[in-house]
Write a structure and sequence with these properties.
Helix content is 45%, strand content 14%. With 613 residues, it is an alpha/beta fold. InterPro entries: Sec-1-like_dom1, Sec-1-like_dom3a, Sec1-like, Sec1-like_dom2, Sec1-like_sf.
Length: 613
């Protein structure tokens, strides 16, 4: 690992997850000597790279082509090219690299692992490198997907099976979280949700990894005056001693079971709607099923690092994105009319100079108009505004009888999909689990009369097992007086056909938890320190939240808003070292379908019956 200057340490602190990964990639390419090279990656590192840098951006830095280690061919010898290897340090990858080195196709190999590699793995590579083509082997801390500066994931869809860690998921989670904190040059305290055995196990494993690897990270950074970015880990107490002694960081391990509500709700920011209704996989969205779609739009890239319009619009709600798309269309049409007026040499010159930007804008307009159009179609076809209104009344109100009546009406409505009807019953079951007059069984019977598949019906009891009263330590539901959702219809946009009110009154639990963490007000009995460490005496400046069981884009938007407010507060401070921020991540980024699959896996083989309803 390289040593860093004061400026680099400060930049690492400020640029967040995306900047840290991007810096590693650029450093790899730069340090592998000048000249054309190929980039050899595995499936996971391909995703790690692609969400922060477009392949065209990488190719501008003398990368000739890309290849996946799982699909390596015994093709022609290209010894005139260098090979830049970026893979996870798994036994499978090391075995594949050894095969490649025994019959090397390239003139030199620069091998970078996304995390710490075992001594045995290095020995295997050395023994396979009989022709001495390996020029460099380095370990990086780039073992997570950075979706935004504050948002990361490990892409483990079902980390829990039968309320225990799925095989390999605990180790992968330890590797991912420690990779993140080391990439940001943090040596934090570790806290965890007290009622979660999974959270305790993960917290203890992360702490042990910091004890072993933390001194390496500390020695890799310059002995600088940037006190909040680095520290030395005391293996006896588990505490972080920061260089300046005035600041700290904390990793907070949470369990998705404490808030099973958020992944079930329809989400209304642009980013969340795309994932909820279309699905995002590695920053790509498939539109292949859209009627009349052109070939170039069958799969589109939707990442803020590669789409400036998306970066500006991803946190806008449904109504706002409609207005923004309209403005983008008007701007495009204005520029198009100007491009059509080429009457002089000067006009021709201006056209040639602006053509690349014009073509890019044309692609941006086509992509987002198509995506928003498909979102609008799905919202209308599934009557999601009606469904969402009912969801918000269920979760944010307290009046049982109207809730029950409305859920019954929608469950019986054939225009409401089986999935949406089932989710409404699940929300009702969670919200009114302790109500003396609850009628969860009656709603389940209504699902069965609709011929909803048995696997969906079983989800109602599964969600109670997964996230019911017995599974939670937090107060998830408000005890305030009943509220009318119509009072929250704040945004009514005119001039864009099909845009109606959106409901966003629900605030995810993690927002409250992160806010308490930043203020130093988390209760020690609810969020103890791993290893019986002494409680911190001051507020943390960086809080890294990791949710076992996954996160959502609604939660990402909430943390983004929190960070924005913290940034405004920091800008009023006279000291730059007072910068405060929250990073949020989890095992997976869920939409409702993927969360339901995770719930099914989590409660598999556990005793459940309709009697528990």
């Amino acid at each position: 690992l390289p040593r860093f200057t004061d400026i680099q340490v400060w930049n690492f602190y400020m640029m967040g997850a995306v900047g840290a990964i991007k810096n590693y990639i650029e450093t790899m390419i730069r340090d592998s000597e000048p000249g054309y090279k190929i980039m050899l990656m595995d499936k996971e590192t391909t995703s790690i790279v692609s969400v922060v840098m477009g392949m065209s951006e990488v190719m501008k830095q003398e990368v000739y082509m890309f290849e996946q280690v799982e699909q390596m061919s015994s093709g022609e010898n290209m010894s005139y090219l260098k090979c830049l290897v970026f893979v996870r340090p798994t036994a499978e990858n090391i075995a594949l690299l050894c095969q490649e080195l025994q019959q090397p196709r390239y003139g030199a190999y620069y091998i970078y692992f996304s995390n710490v590699v075992s001594k045995a793995g290095v020995k295997q590579l050395a023994e396979a490198d009989e022709q001495e083509v390996v020029r460099e082997v380095q370990e990086l801390y780039a073992d997570y997907l950075a979706l935004a500066p504050h948002f990361y994931t490990l892409n483990i869809p079902t980390p829990v099976t039968g309320m225990r860690w799925s095989p390999g998921s605990l180790q992968r989670s330890v590797q991912g979280v420690t990779s993140l904190i080391f990439s940001l040059l943090l040596l934090p305290d570790i806290r965890y949700q007290a009622n979660s055995e999974l959270a305790r196990q993960l917290a203890d494993e992360i702490r042990q990894t910091i004890v072993v690897e933390g001194s390496v990270v500390a020695n890799c950074s310059a002995r600088s005056t940037v006190s909040h970015s680095n520290g030395f880990y005391n293996s006896n107490t588990g505490n972080t001693t920061n260089i300046g002694g005035n600041s700290s960081s904390v990793v907070l391990i949470l369990d998705r079971r404490d808030d099973a509500i958020t992944p079930l709700l329809h989400q209304w920011t642009y980013e969340a709607m795309v994932h909820q209704l279309l699905g995002v996989n590695g920053g790509r969205v498939s539109l292949a099923n859209v009627s009349g779609i052109s070939e170039e739009l069958k799969e589109v890239v939707m990442t803020p690092t590669q789409d400036q319009f998306y970066a500006k619009s991803m946190y806008l709600n449904y109504g706002e994105i409609g207005q923004t798309i309209k403005q983008l269309m008007e701007e495009y049409q204005s520029k198009l009319s100007k491009q059509q007026k080429v009457e002089s040499i000067t006009d021709m010159k201006n056209f040639v100079q602006s053509y690349p930007q014009f073509k890019q804008m044309s692609g941006t307009v086509s992509k987002h108009v198509t995506v928003v159009g498909e979102l609008s179609r799905v919202v209308s076809a599934r009557r999601l505004l009606h469904v969402s209104e009912c969801q918000q009344e269920l979760i944010c109100g307290t009046d049982h009888s109207p809730n029950l009546q409305r859920v019954h009406e929608l469950v019986r409505d054939p225009s409401i999909s089986a999935e949406d009807a089932t989710v409404l019953v699940m929300l009702y079951a969670l919200r009114h689990q302790s109500h003396p007059n609850k009628d969860t069984r009656g709603l389940v019977a209504a699902l069965e009369r609709r011929k909803v598949t048995p696997s969906y019906v079983k989800l109602v009891s599964a969600i109670l097992e997964y996230g019911g009263n017995a599974a939670r330590q937090s107060t998830l539901f408000s005890t305030q007086l009943p509220q009318d959702v119509s009072a929250f219809k704040k945004l009514l946009f005119k001039g864009v056909k099909g845009v109606e009110n959106v409901y966003t009154q629900h605030k995810p639990l993690v927002l409250e938890t992160a806010t308490l963490a930043i203020k130093g007000k988390l209760k020690d009995n609810l969020y103890p320190y791993s290893g019986n460490a002494s409680p911190a005496t001051h507020r943390p400046q960086t809080v890294v939240v990791f949710i076992i069981g996954g996160v959502t884009y609604e939660e990402s938007a909430a943390i983004h808003q929190l960070n924005s407010s913290l940034s405004s507060s920091n800008s009023n401070s006279s000291s730059s070292s007072s910068a405060t921020r929250v990073l949020l991540g989890g095992t997976h980024v869920h939409n409702t379908p993927s969360f339901l699959e995770a719930v099914q896996a989590a409660v598999v083989d556990r005793d459940r019956s309709v009697q528990k309803l």
